[in-house]
What does this fold into?
Amino acid sequence: MKTTRALALLLLAFALLTRVLAQTNAPDVKAFVHDFYSVYNAPGAVKMADFYAEDATFYDPSFELDMHGRAEIGALFVRGLAKYESLTHEIVRTTALGDDLVVEAVMVGVLHGKTVRVPYVSIFHFVGGKIARQRDMFDTLHFMVQLGVFPSPFQPKPAARPAEAKSN
It folds into this structure.
């Protein structure tokens, strides 16, 4: 009896979870990733705001950004992406669950004549098919190293000195 009850509860939980996941507010993952990252560059920057809900938030502690509203987020993209001579994104992995999407990628851009490759992660939450919240984290240390702002903290170890000959 207890086993039957536990099995029934498990099946009910599975059915509810399946129903919740089917009622997502998120757009199709492949289509969103393609559309969003194809305009995530200087020429497409003016289209970026269209992906966001009117009251969306965008937070990126790596660049000290805490933006509120579609207009403010859109203006950030127009200003920020204009600095790049070229910019593409190599998508490494996407993980979606319900209304949330995590994108792991590498930004490949030319900035001040230097090519940079910057790994990052974006976490999106969707409401009504639009981005309601976005949280980003870029590897800014390696970004600055590639631009020559900081020396690499990962220098090769100095060669070991040969052991001195022992006197007998």
